[in-house]
Design a protein that fits this description.
Length: 300
């Protein structure tokens, strides 16, 4: 059995375990909701999986990602602290269960939106789990998509493969906020989900395109960076951090290419990997896995 098939199986099993755990112990903790701007209607929700956003309008609430299965009740309770409007729309940044597992927890939802390929990945997982179509996106896009108007306008962009081949970047242009999902998980080596189209070779160019397109954005919401205390939140990740992360993935790729050129094995490259001092605070727990993924991609 190939490494890709094994990894795909492990990812499916991992996602199913997240769904199962959520269904067995719904609301296993409390979601924390904080305003990004005290005079605005956009909130960040942390805990229970990936970071999520809630846009509260008079006609309904839009959620960007829904955390682990079973955490919807806590998300809804947090939202109820500021509005009684129903949750009408969900946007999923990608397919993984810590960002999509709560889709089933919102029966009032009318639209679930994601990239074309993300829906395809989610459909495969739904077939494994028997979850059915109710948690799947019913609206998809290939390159760009937008909803709402004026100050609440939301734009979805696809800049290329990276974490997966369907990562959506969700932009609130009038609020100068963007949610990157796990395309920018935190200041750490990313997860390259090869079975779902992730690419360590494409990653730097994808992030560079995103950074160039988002120059007007001031606040970046990452997939998993801990949210600073306070409401409104201060000290969030910035566009400069995104630009630095694009540089990080490029220099990581360059180091791996040089290791291949010098004849090192993937394990030798991982053991001897050296990056510039500016990245010394980056989490490197996934560095070895990324080196091997890039080796497989460049030397199939």
């Amino acid at each position: 059995m190939s490494r890709t098939i094994v990894l795909a199986s492990l990812l499916a099993v991992g996602w199913l375990s997240l769904v199962s755990a959520g269904q067995q112990s719904p609301g296993g903790g409390t979601v924390k909701m904080q305003s990004l701007n005290v005079s605005d209607n956009l909130y960040i929700l942390s805990g229970g999986g990936g970071n999520a956003l809630a846009l509260v309008t008079d006609t309904g609430v839009v959620l960007v990602d829904t955390k682990l299965a079973g955490w919807g009740a806590s998300m809804l309770e947090a939202v109820r602290g500021v509005s009684d409007a129903p949750v009408t729309t969900i946007i999923n940044t990608h397919a993984h269960g810590d960002h999509t597992g709560g889709n089933l927890d919102f029966p009032t939802v009318v639209d679930i939106i994601a990239h074309d390929r993300t829906r395809a990945h989610m459909a495969k997982l739904a077939a494994f789990s028997g979850t059915g179509s109710r948690f799947l996106p019913n609206k998809t896009f290939a390159t760009t998509y937008s909803i709402l108007d004026g100050i609440d306008r939301i734009e979805l962009h696809y800049f290329g493969a990276g974490h997966t081949n369907g990562d959506a970047v969700v932009v609130f242009p009038e609020k100068r906020v963007a949610h990157m999902g796990d395309l920018f998980p935190s200041k750490s080596a990313p997860i390259i989900d090869v079975p779902n189209g992730g690419s360590g070779v494409a990653y730097p160019d994808t992030l560079a395109r995103a950074a160039a397109a988002l120059k007007a954005v001031t606040t970046i919401v990452t997939g998993h960076t801990p949210v600073p205390a306070g409401s409104p939140v201060r000290g969030m990740t910035s566009i400069r951090d995104l630009q630095e992360y694009a540089d990080f993935t490029r220099e990581f790729l360059t180091a791996v290419r040089e290791a291949i050129k010098s004849g090192k094995s993937a394990d030798e490259a991982a053991a001897s990997l050296v990056l510039p001092e500016r990245y010394k605070a980056y989490g490197m727990e996934r560095a070895a896995a990324n080196v091997r993924a890039i080796y497989d991609e460049l030397r199939p």
